[in-house]
Structure formats: structure tokens, C-alpha cells
Amino acid sequence: MEFLGTTQTASYCGPKKSYLFPEPVPTSTTQDSYQSYYLPGYRYLNSWRPSLFYRVSAVPTNSGEQGNMPLSAPLRPPTILPSVRSALYARYSPRDWYQANAVQYKGSESCRHWAGRLNADSLRLMQDKNQLTQQTQDNTGRSLGQRLSDIDFWRSELTYELERLLTEIRALETAKRRLECAADEAQRPLKVALECLYNREKRMGIDLVHDDVEKNLIREVDLFKSCQERMRKLAERIDQQLGINRDAQHALERDLSDKNSAHFIDEKCYNLRNTSDSISFYHGVEKIDGTVSVPETWAKFSDDNIRHSQNARANSIKLREETENTLENVSEEMWKQFTDTNLAFTNRIAETADTKNKLQTHLAKTLQEIFQTENTIMLLERAIMAKECPLKVAQTRLEGRTRRPNVELCRDIPQFKLVNEVFTIDDTLQTLKLRLREAHDTLQLLVLNKARLEHDLSVKANSLFIDRKCMDMRKTFPSTPRLVGYT
């Protein structure tokens, strides 16, 4: 007896020798009609086929074939024709009969011995193959179970990472909306600052000055535009990062969907048993190799997807932190500039109001001085008119004394006094008239100064009105929560 697994070369599997008949000649008819049966998965193996059932003994039936047999083979006596029935004689002797029976016993015992060995080896072979099949099936089941555990692990990792990525995407979208809202909130103060600049262009004369208010307004407009540009650029970067995050999300979802499908299929395969109804033969399926990965690349694919998602989340967190810092800095800068501009407006309004008050004081004093000057002119005119009569008296006296006769025309003291009186009154009149002209010139200067003061007062009133109007427009400013994007 040979060891298990070498039944094809066992001695009892070879051609058996007949002790009664000559070695049969194999016939092609039986051999060609033999149809072998193949088990599933063993179609191309040389399965064991006993020679006992493969060859069929052929016994010659005619004399021609008997003549071609070797001389050493036992021969049967020829057939006795009916014409010589009377000459019958025994074909075999008792010795041949006993010998044939002994040979038959021995052949039967040999066949039964071979059959016993074959049955024992077959049982042992079936037991070993059953154990091997069961062991292989158990190992395959354990492998499937381990594969299910691996799929569950990566599926849980993908699910956890997908949830965190979705949370990060929502947070990043919120940050983007805050930036857009903050940029929109900065638009109204920007319009107010521009309108203030436009209104202050309506100032007149000397008040059209490049003062601190205008400098702060220009700085405020530039700051608001710069802050809006910073927030818009950051929103564009966030939009690009959202695209990257969505790519990572789609990769995770696709991988997770594939993992769910593979888990469903492997779980279904894991639950299959020999008694299941859904099992069937699929010849040649073991030759189909449609795999596209090995366990290392399979695990690396999911790991790469998770790492890509983690990198995207890290970049998103940095962008959100940058967004928070930007919004806080922008809000603080805009509030500070708004406060500085309002302070400059307040100082300028106070300064303009003080100047206006001083101008009004000067105007009042000028009006008083004009009134006094007009009174002085009136008194001077009266004084001049009052000197005319004394001048007439003195000149009339002189003219009357010129009509004295002869020697009476004496240059006496009254004559000297009258001449001196005329010259004195005439000099007084000239002095009063000169002073009257000076008074009229002074009055003209006062009137001109009054006109300038009134014009300057109108300019200051216009500037004061414009600045106060601008301050009324700047009474409201977006609160800090609105400036950082909260609505």
C-alpha cells in the first residue's frame, strides 16, 4: 500500500493479470465511450481512474482468432458437430476443473483484497480531502472575516474624517459669509465718507482748505476700500479652498460608498454555507483576475484620501483663523479711523464756530464805529456851517471899513484884529473840511470792512452748516458684531 496522494501509482491500480484467460486486448469502443466526470474546479487535473473499469476482457469467438493466439495460452476444444455427437468425450479433466476453481478462488480473493485496500484508501482519501476542504473553507471564512474587519476599520475612519470635513466645510462657508457681510457693511460708511468729501467741496473762499478733517476723510475712504479689498481677496481664497475641500469630500464619499458595497458583498460571501440556496457552479471564474489593487495599495488609497482631507482641513483651519484675525483688525481699524475723523470734525466745527463768533464781535464793533464816524461827520459838517457866519461877519466888517474916507482908512488895531480873525476862521474851515474828508474816508473803510466781515461770516456759516450736516450723517456707524460679519 502506498501513501495518501499517490493512488494513481498504486500497485493495485495497474492492469490485473488473469489466471484463467489470456490477457485481453483493449477495445477502442469501450475506451472511447467512457465519459469521465469532473468535479468543479478540478476539470484540468488528472483524476484517478481505476483500470479495473477501464478495460473489458475480449474472448475470441472463432477459430481464426484462435489460430492467431500464442501457443502457450490454454485452448478450448473445438465445437462438436451433430454428426459426431456419438463420439463425445470430456473436454476437461477433474484436475482442470479443480485447478480452474482454485484459480477462480484465488482471483476472487485477490480482487476482494484489492477492493478492500481501495475502499480503505478511498475512505481515508475522502476524509483527508474533506478535512482539507473544510480547513480551506474555514481559512477562507476567517480571511473574509478579517477582510470585513479591515473594511469596517477603514469605513469608520472614512466616516469620521468625512464628518469632520463636512463640519469644517460648514465652518468655512460661515467664515466666507461673514467676510461678504463685513464687506457689505463697510460699504455704507464708505459712501458716507465719500459724500462728506463731496459736500465739503462746496465750501467757499478761504474755508476751502485741506484741513485735518479732509485728511482724515481721505484716509478713511482709503482704509475702507483697502479693508474691503482684503476681505474680498480672502473670500476668494476661501472659495478656492472650499473647492479643494469638496474634492476631498467627493473622494471620501466615493471611497466610503465603495467600502460599503465591498462590505455588503464580502458579508454576503462570508455568510454563504454549503447549505445555502444561492450557491452555484461558475466554471472558469477562478481564472478571471479583475483585481486592480493589492492589500497594500488598497489601504494606501484610503489612507491617501484621509491624509488629503486632513491637509484640506488644516488649510481650512488656517484660513478661518486668518479670517477671524482679519475681521478683528479691520473692525478695530475702521472704528479707530471713524473716531479720529469724528474728532477732527468736532474740533473743526468748534474752531469754525469760535471764528464765526469772533467775526460777529468784530462786525458789531465795526457797526458801532461806523455809527460814531457818521455822527462825527455830522458834527463836522455842523461845525463848518457854524463857522460860515463868523467868517461872513468878519469879512463884512473888513469890507465896510474899506469905505472909510481918506485918512480914516487907518491900519489900526481893529483892522489887524479883523484880518487876523478872517485868516483864523478860514484856517479853521480848511482844517474842519480836511477832517471831514478824512472822516468820510474812514467811513468808507469801515463800510468795506463791514462787507468783508459779513461775507466772511456767510462763508463761516456755510462751512459750519456743511460740517454739521456731515456730522449728522456720521451719527450712525455699524456696530462691531456687524463689522465682523455677524448679522
Overall form: rod-shaped
Beta content: under 5%
Structural class: mainly alpha
Q: Which blocks of ≥5 consecutive residues have pLDDT under 50?
A: 1-75
| Oligomeric form | single chain
Q: How confident is the prediction overall: mean pLDDT?
A: 82
Fraction of helical residues = over 70%
Q: Main β-sheet: number of strands, strand sense, barrel status?
A: none
Query: Count the strands?
Result: 0
What is the H/E string?
Answer: HHHHHHHH
N-to-C terminal Cα separation, in Å? 94 Å
Radius of gyration: 68 Å
Q: Which key terms come to mind for this protein?
A:
71% helix, single chain, rod-shaped, 487 residues, mainly alpha, disordered N terminus
Provide structural commentary.
Helices cover 71% and strands 0% of the residues. With 487 residues, it is an all-alpha fold. Helix 3 (94-185) runs parallel beside helix 6 (295-401) and helix 6 (295-401) packs antiparallel against helix 7 (413-473). The longest helix has 107 residues, at 295-401. It is rod-shaped and about 245 Å long. The model is unreliable at 1-75 (pLDDT under 50).
Draw up the topology in text:
Elements: H1 28-33, H2 63-67, H3 94-185, H4 187-200, H5 212-270, H6 295-401, H7 413-473, H8 480-483
Helix pairs in contact: 3-5, 3-6, 4-5, 4-7, 5-6, 6-7
